[in-house]
Amino acid sequence: MMLPRPEILLTPTEMSRVDAAAIASEISGQALMLRAGEAVAACVLRHYPAALRFAVLCGPGNNGGDGYVAAEALVRCGANVRVFALGDPERLRGDARIARAGWSGRVEALEAYMPQAGDVVIDAVFGAGLARDVPDLVQQAIADVTAAAIPVIAVDLPSGIDGASGKLRGAAFRAERSVTFVTRKPGHVLLPGRDHCGTVEVFDIGIPHRIVAAEAAGLWVNGPALFQSFRRPRSAEDHKYRRGHLTVFSGPAISTGAARLSAGAALKAGAGLVTLASPSDSLAVNAAHLTAVMQTAMDTVADVESWLIDQRRNTFALGPGFGDRDKARSYAVAIARSGRNLVLDADGISAFSGDASALREAFEGSAGQLVTTPHEGEFTRLFPDIARGDGGKVEKALAAARAISGIVVCKGADTVIACPDGRAAIEEHAPATLATAGSGDVLAGIIAANLANGMPAFEAACAGVHQHGQAATRAGEGLTAEDLVSHVLPA
């Protein structure tokens, strides 16, 4: 059976290379622009048939060229169209200049546009390649359109959104719909860009997939196509150890709940056997709450080393509610030396604050796989220099993954999963209800279950993040972390 392709996200730089490669293969750049502009016109006519006027705002590059094509296509369909340009349209070059010459009407200055009731704005000022703040004239147009509550259709991306990072560049149109070409861009999926794009429609303008795939660097929208071929099929011959034995470390008696959430989520996600490794003073508290999760006493690193003698104990989750950072650090190093898999979360991450190199050294040469799951604050503590940098979320997550030679799950409403080999995925289906205490502990348990089941670390993390979001969607409003556990399903 043919598996579906993962959805590629092309950065603006990669998209430029795709365009160049398509033209080098004798696909006309002018034909590509014609298809793009006509796709925009088709979209606005389909969704806004009652518009009294289309105001097409054109920029000084190829995005503006798409706008001129769209304007002419709308006029041919009998629409009332006016075109407003940023800068001197006579200075356009290449295909955009040809598109401008094909526009049969007047071109007015951008500052002349005054929003009117019944208008629909087609924003073709800047596309995905914007990497600087928009000029004052554009910021004023954005303010005027926003104040008038005029619907906006963005060509590629709303002007003011950085296509590579999703960052806001001074100000940005908030579009009801965005029309993009070939693939979505990171700015469509990362925040705050995602909130400015509205409904995104992707149009095929005739560039073969082989060209797209050749220029893509390995950034995808997270989803089953990334990990489903790595699922271990269930078998009548399965037993609990074949499905993986996960050990979750508990904190002291007053903070045991986080580890139990991780352990419970891991069982629901398909781990064959889960043991909660508790300090002696936590045994009674945990025993009162546990049924299917097993329990053992673990107070020192010597206890951990003794536990590691059994090779069936293949995966560990460390950090949720753990408390003692020095002990967490020594436990993590012992696990790394044993060649076992480790999901490091919460206090486990904080145990290496400002010392990511120590984490890398511990796992260097180890057969074990490392996954870290930091939220923004934990990321900043573990990778202070990377966090202070200018890159976007994907770039920072990839730099962090390289720094520890492990997987980094940079959590948030636009969670990024990054691998040191340069692969990355962005999760876009994470409900806001996940912003609740204990949600991250559940995620750590799900990812650990996938590792215990034999998934490679990157795919295990991608699957876990997706399962987490889907569980929240099933749980609905009012969810707590306990509710979330009950809605977890295997990958």
Features:
Rossmann fold, alpha/beta, 7-stranded parallel β-sheet, elongated, nucleotide-binding, single chain, potassium, NADP, ATP-binding, 2 domains, Carbohydrate_kinase_pred_CS
Structure summary:
The chain has 491 residues and is of the alpha/beta class.
Care to describe what's here?
With 491 residues, this protein is α/β, with parallel strands linked by helices. It has 21 helices and 17 strands. It has helices at residues 12-24, 29-47, 62-76, 94-101, 136-148, 186-189, 193-197, 209-215, 224-227, 257-269, 283-287, 301-307, 325-338, 347-350, 356-363, 376-382, 384-387, 393-404, 439-452, 457-475, 481-486; strands at 53-58, 81-85, 107-109, 119-124, 152-155, 177-181, 199-203, 219-221, 245-249, 273-278, 294-297, 313-318, 341-344, 370-372, 407-410, 416-418, 424-426. α2 packs across α3, α10 (257-269) crosses α19 (439-452) and α19 (439-452) packs across α20. The longest helix is centred in the first third of the chain and has 19 residues, at 29-47. The model has no long low-confidence stretch (mean pLDDT 95). Residues 223-491 form the YjeF C-terminal domain.
Residue fraction in strands: 15-25%
Q: Give the overall shape.
A: elongated
Largest sheet, in brief, is: 10 strands, mixed
- Give the % helix: 40-55%
- CATH overall fold name of the largest domain: UDP-N-acetylmuramoyl-L-alanine:D-glutamate ligase
Binding site for (6S)-NADPHX: 62-66, 127-133, 156, 258, 321, 375, 441
Pfam families: Carb_kinase, YjeF_N
Family: Belongs to the NnrD/CARKD family. In the C-terminal section; belongs to the NnrD/CARKD family.
InterPro entries: Carbohydrate_kinase_pred_CS, CARKD, Nnr, Ribokinase-like, YjeF_N_dom, YjeF_N_dom_sf
